[in-house]
Design goal:
The chain is α/β, with parallel strands linked by helices. Helix content is 43%, strand content 12%.
Length: 656
């Protein structure tokens, strides 16, 4: 050991210890991810070989990340070593830098474990909307269940500072080196650093595309380093597979708007021969209501008897997919009929908040409807107050409308309180005005921290806390429908229930369909006296034209959706942050931001990639999705989303 200390300069021994610390940390958290997040099906087949391969590939990613992280201090300390710099500020900078690097990697790696559990994806920047950060911290601090993690985090920060200081002192000596030994040791270290920047001494550099090496989505994701996925997500998902004019032409063909001479390729005047129906519309976006949680889709635990019954007595779309996996995406696509951009907050991304959108709120408001939006939390969260008010809602009801005694948790009131209050407000609106109303309700209880109020009369049957909240959410919906069915305005109302997104129920793919497969229910007994199950594909973007079709009111559509009673959707498109999914009755196409694309036969529930044998099908699915995403982004950036701007000339095309 003494000979080792004499032959290796102090700064290299210090960096070596930091490097080893990072590699050890990444390996430990990969093991934790395996233990905590492995799917239920994982133990049914021997997987030791694929797990070992995942750890080997992952270790190369770890080497790559650690090498990039320590490249700057390596340059600084090597320069100080070669040129005999003795200024303390350089060494202080290096210690602080290394402390911050380890701390950042620790925070990202630790946050990745619960994030993966919830979203079935390695950590990306979509996890943190900086404009909401203050409110998110407030919510976390108010929940006692998070305190142990906060304490562990603070202890980790203190421990990292002590560890870096310790290894700095333990590797410091007064040894001097001749110029030749300085050059030789620096040359050897530089070669090792370059090997590390390449991902190790192997023929090929580790890439996210090569991480997809098996037919098991969990195993493939286990290889990834969350620090790399975090910083990789700062770069846009490449949807530009066509020249813009080609993409617009394809979109015109998709939505049958080829005769439209406007700048907006989706503008369409919808006219009806039938007499209009000026009915009320109540839209309920149900938090995390996945098809996988419902009995009518095959869940054996009977968590949702109320919704199951509602499906059997309504128009039920059994193949509806949410456009994203976040509530803001569900609101945006459902209300405003546009697909969400991958890795972007659709209502708070620096562009969309500076334009206006057509859709249900503004269109119905222009037809004389009174519009109101109900949520349980402060309306400032997710930019709801600004965005919704700007785009057609007259009123927004939020947490401020309730006394503190009714609050269930840090997200405000629970579902039953929301429904009771909305019922009262809708009664008042119906009594005081002859105009119809459009109301949107956003529920919350099936969202962490998974609690419902102690004063509730609800009695759960399940022992699992999460399943209890789904039982409760279903119970609250049933009570709401039972109550409003007694009101005089009930028969003149179209009720629409849809999941804002689903939830993570792991399966053979790294894009669990349970996260986007959601119920879509249209309950309007005066229009549909008989129930019917619709087997065609649907997206949340279809709700706007479908509801307007039921109202039979002439309007101009400037969104990307189909009237599901008059048109057929060929593919459903959805986002899971850094992954794009396109699905039809047989195939599931998945494009990954920094990984290779795959194609599956999802009905077989087996994760074998069949893309090479079905390249034409994969290309058509990719083209369908990317053309729409490209044009949607172009429309938003050029403020062509409101109907009044649809025929404006566009002078400047956005940069790719």
């Amino acid at each position: 050991m003494n000979q080792f200390r004499k032959n290796l300069p102090d700064h290299l021994r210090f960096l070596m210890w930091v490097y080893v610390s990072l590699l050890a940390m990444f390996t430990v958290f990969r093991a934790i991810t395996l233990l905590v997040n492995r799917p239920e099906y994982f133990g049914s087949v021997e997987r030791s070989i694929s797990i070992r391969e995942a750890f080997l590939i992952g270790f190369r990613f770890d080497i790559l990340v650690a090498s990039y992280a320590l490249f700057l201090p390596y340059l600084v300390l090597t320069a100080a070593f070669l040129f005999d710099w003795t200024q303390p500020r350089w060494f202080k900078f290096t210690r602080i830098y290394c402390t911050v690097i380890i701390l950042v990697c620790l925070i990202i790696s630790a946050a990745d474990v619960p994030y993966f559990n919830f979203f079935n994806s390695r950590l990306t920047t979509i996890a943190v909307n900086w404009k909401n950060l203050g409110q998110v911290i407030h919510y976390i601090v108010r929940e006692i269940k998070y305190y142990p993690f906060i304490i562990i985090g603070l202890f980790g920060i203190w421990g990292i500072g002590k560890w870096v200081r310790y290894i700095w002192k333990s590797t410091s000596t007064d040894l001097s080196f001749t110029n030749s030994r300085k050059i030789s040791s620096t040359a050897g270290a530089t070669v090792l650093m370059l090997i590390g920047l390449f991902g190790g001494a192997t023929p090929s550099r580790p890439t996210m595309e090569r991480a997809v090496f098996s037919n098991d989505g969990f195993i493939n994701q286990l290889t990834l380093n969350p620090v790399q996925t975090w910083f990789d997500s700062y770069f846009d998902f490449n949807i530009y597979i066509f020249p813009l004019e080609d993409a617009k032409l394809r979109v015109r063909r998709i939505f049958n708007t080829s005769k439209n001479n406007c700048s907006s390729p989706v503008k369409k005047d919808r006219k009806f021969k039938e007499k209009g129906r000026p009915m009320n519309v109540v839209l309920v976006l149900m938090e995390s209501m996945s098809a996988g949680r419902m009995g009518i889709f095959g869940n054996p635990k009977n968590l949702t008897p109320g919704l199951d019954s509602l499906c059997r007595n309504s128009i039920f779309f059994e193949n509806c997919y949410s456009n994203g996996i976040h509530t803001n995406a569900g609101l945006y696509s459902t209300l405003f009929g546009m697909p969400v951009m991958l890795l972007q907050h659709p209502m708070n991304n620096g562009v969309s908040e500076f334009t206006t959108f057509s859709g249900l709120p503004s269109t119905l408001k222009s037809k004389g409807y009174e519009t109101i939006f109900f949520c349980t939390h402060p309306k400032s969260f997710d930019n709801l107050d600004t965005f919704m008010t700007k785009n057609g809602f007259d009123q927004i009801s939020d947490q401020a409308d309730y006394p503190d005694s009714l609050l269930a948790n840090s997200w405000g009131v629970a579902d039953e309180t929301l429904f009771d209050y909305a019922h009262q407000r809708l009664n008042k609106m119906a009594a005081e005005s002859e105009n119809p109303f459009f109301a949107t309700l956003l529920t919350i209880t099936a969202h962490p921290p998974y609690t419902f109020p102690g004063f509730s009369k609800f009695k759960p049957r399940c022992d699992d806390q999460v399943e209890q909240c789904y039982e409760y959410a279903d119970w609250a919906v049933k009570n709401f429908m039972d109550d409003v069915s007694q009101e005089p305005w009930y028969k003149n109302t179209i009720f629409v229930f849809v999941g804002d997104h689903g939830t993570n129920i792991p399966g053979p793919y790294d894009v669990p369909l349970s996260y986007n497969h959601v119920p879509l229910i249209i309950h309007a007994p005066s229009i549909f006296p008989k129930a019917k199950t619709m087997s065609g594909l649907a997206n949340q973007t279809d709700i706007f034209p479908t509801v307007m079709g039921l109202l039979q009111t002439n309007y101009t559509q400037n969104t990307m959706g189909f009237d599901l009673f008059r048109e057929k959707r060929p593919f459903a498109v959805f986002s899971q942050d850094s992954k794009l999914g396109v699905i039809d009755e047989k195939y599931l196409y998945v494009a990954r931001k920094s990984g290779r694309a795959t194609l599956y036969e999802h009905k077989t529930n087996f994760g074998k990639d069949i893309l090479k044998k079905n390249q034409a099908r994969a290309d058509s699915m990719k083209s369908f999705a990317c053309a729409q995403l490209q044009v949607a982004l172009w429309m938003v950036r050029n403020k062509l989303t409101p109907v009044k701007n649809a025929c404006d000339s566009v002078k400047i095309e956005p940069l790719r």
